[in-house]
């Protein structure tokens, strides 16, 4: 039976206005703006949200942390700290492909920091992609500077590389051994 009342939303809908708004937002983002800025979300409020997400992460409430960090990345998509936090929460939830995506974006922003590359290597190991994990971890060793934090990552990368090498050697020898 047809409705006797009109759909006011459909009558008020103006596609050209929506397109204009989308183009304005696209220009805003292309000029370096963020959704958070466009929505008047202050840097202080974003920092408070980050601290909330960090608290959730520290309490091993990774789903909650993931939700908060996802919102922050929407608000400020080029913030490497938010990207790293979101990637870390995704990694802890076993969402390795999601984590890799965010670590990759962070790596583009943190060109002199091997941290996102290291954690990408961990995700690749978890996904069973030992070849790419080896490349990532080797890159960490290559680009790490002399700072204590990066030297610690370099040591961890060496340990993971040795573990991958040992695993591939035992797999190779298991494949060549004969059973009686």
Give a quick set of tags describing it.
180 residues; mainly alpha; Serine Threonine Protein Phosphatase 5, Tetratricopeptide repeat; disordered N terminus
Q: What's this model, at a glance?
A:
Helices cover 76% and strands 0% of the residues. The protein is mostly helical and 180 residues long.
Explain what you see.
The protein is mainly α. The chain has 2 domains: 35-110, Tetratricopeptide repeat domain (Serine Threonine Protein Phosphatase 5, Tetratricopeptide repeat, Alpha Horseshoe), CATH 1.25.40.10; 112-172, no CATH class. Helices cover 76% and strands 0% of the residues. The protein has 10 helices and no strands. It is elongated. The termini are far apart. Mean pLDDT is 87; it is low at 1-8.
């Amino acid at each position: 039976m047809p409705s006797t009342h009109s759909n006011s939303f459909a009558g008020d809908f103006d596609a050209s206005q929506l397109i204009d708004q989308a183009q304005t937002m696209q220009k805003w983002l292309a000029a370096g703006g963020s959704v958070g800025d466009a929505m008047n979300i202050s840097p202080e409020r974003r920092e408070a949200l980050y601290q909330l997400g960090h608290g959730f992460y520290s309490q091993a409430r990774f789903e909650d942390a993931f939700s908060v960090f996802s919102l922050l990345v929407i608000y400020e998509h080029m913030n490497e700290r938010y990207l790293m936090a979101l990637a870390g929460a995704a990694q802890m939830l076993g969402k390795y492909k999601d984590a890799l995506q965010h670590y990759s974006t962070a790596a583009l922003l943190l060109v002199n920091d091997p941290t996102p590359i290291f954690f990408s290597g961990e995700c690749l190991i978890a996904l069973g992609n030992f070849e790419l994990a080896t490349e990532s971890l080797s890159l960490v060793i290559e680009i790490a500077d002399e700072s204590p934090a990066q030297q610690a990552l370099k040591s961890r990368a060496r340990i993971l590389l040795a573990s991958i090498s040992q695993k591939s050697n035992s797999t190779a020898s298991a494949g060549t051994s004969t059973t009686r």
